[in-house]
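Much of what follows relies on a compact textual record of a protein's fold. A record is reproduced here so that you can trace the correspondence yourselves:
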Amino acid sequence: MKAMLTALLLVCVACTPTRSEQQIHVSEFRNYGATPLQHTFYLGSDSEHHHFTWSNGKQGGRWLIRKSEMPIINERVLTPESGRSGYIALLDSDGTWRVR
């Protein structure tokens, strides 16, 4: 029972907007890479925004970027499980955003 409650809490936390969640313009997007102390991960998209989680040292948060500002050709659907893993968003040489 305790494990089920813990799993439910993790799902709720992953899907709940946090105080550090903020909408940014695509020009403010920063890919911090994917190392233990810093990273930027694409979590998925809803009908209006792409959702990212980021950290740089002890700082971190979540970003929302309007889909109209950042077309991702292979976007993923944001789900409750999206907070547990993420994808790397890359800008290809032809100017196309992709997730891997």
About this structure: Residues 2-19 have pLDDT under 50 and may be disordered.
